[in-house]
Amino acid sequence: MTDPVYRRVVIKLSGEYLAGQQGFGIDQPTVDRVADDLIAARKLGTEVAVVIGGGNMVRGVEVSSRGVSRTTGDTMGMLATMMNCLALEAAIERKGTPARTLSAFVMPEISELFTRTAAHKYLAEGRIVLLGGGTGNPFFTTDTTAVLRAAEIGAEAVLKATNVDGVYSADPKKDPSATRFDRLTHSQAIEGGYKVMDATAFALARETSLPIIVFSIAAPGSIGAILRGVGHGTIVAG
C-alpha cells in the first residue's frame, strides 16, 4: 500500500452535504457514506480530524437577517455543528472504528472540551476526532475553524471537501467557460476572491504555512485518493 502523503489532516465537511437530497437535516445514508470514507482514510495510516459546518440546520448569517442578533445566530450555528459531529461520530463507531467528539464549548454531559492535549491523545490512539462548536466564537466560519484547529494540532494539511472538484475561475455551474486551477498560492486565492473558502481561512493558512486541498466529496473514496496523492483537486499553498 502506498504511504499517505499526509500523516495528520483536518478534513472540512459542509453541513449542507450531510442533508443529502432532502436539503435539510441529516440524511443517514449520506452520513454513513461519509463515515465509510473517513474510516478508509484512517486505515491508510493518516490521523484524521474533522470539522463540520452546520448549514444543514442553521446558518447564523441567515438567522440574524430575520431579527436574531448575529452573535445569537452564530451560536445557534455552532450548536448545529455539534449535532452533526454527534451524528457522524455515532455512524463511525457503529461501523467499528473509534471516534471522539471534542467541543469548543463546555458541555460535559454531551462532549469533552477541545484541548490540544485531548486531540493529540485521541488521534494517537487511532480515533477519528470530530471537532464541533466552531471556534467557540461568533463571526468566524467553520472554514476558519478547520485551519485554526489544523494549526493547533500540528496537522499537515486541510482537506476542504466540497461539491466541486477544486477552485475555479468562476462558478462552473453558472459559467461553462470557468477554468479549474491545479494550484494557487494563498495570496492568489485571497486576491481572486474565490468563494470556495472564506478569506480569513486562506489568510490564516498563509500565516501558518498550511496547504489547503480543495476537492469533491461526491465520489466515494475521494478522501483516500487525495491522501494517496492521486485525487483530483486544487492545492492552495505557498
From TrEMBL:
It comes from the Bacteria. GO terms for cellular component: cytosol. Allosterically activated by GTP. Inhibited by UTP. One of its GO terms (biological process) is UDP biosynthetic process. Residues 20-25 are annotated as: Involved in allosteric activation by GTP. Pathway: Pyrimidine metabolism; CTP biosynthesis via de novo pathway; UDP from UMP (UMPK route): step 1/1. UMP binds at G54, D74, T135, G136, N137, P138, F139, F140, T141, T142. ATP binds at K12, L13, S14, G15, G55, R59, T162, N163, Y168, D171. The keyword Isomerase does not apply. Gene3D superfamilies: Acetylglutamate kinase-like. GO terms for molecular function: ATP binding; UMP kinase activity. Residues 8-216 form the Aspartate/glutamate/uridylate kinase domain. Its EC number is 2.7.4.22. Keywords: Allosteric enzyme, ATP-binding, Cytoplasm, Kinase, Nucleotide-binding, Pyrimidine biosynthesis, Transferase. It catalyses: UMP + ATP = UDP + ADP. It is found in: Cytoplasm. Homohexamer. Belongs to the UMP kinase family. NCBIfam families: pyrH_bact. Catalyzes the reversible phosphorylation of UMP to UDP. This is Uridylate kinase. It comes from Bradyrhizobium huanghuaihaiense.
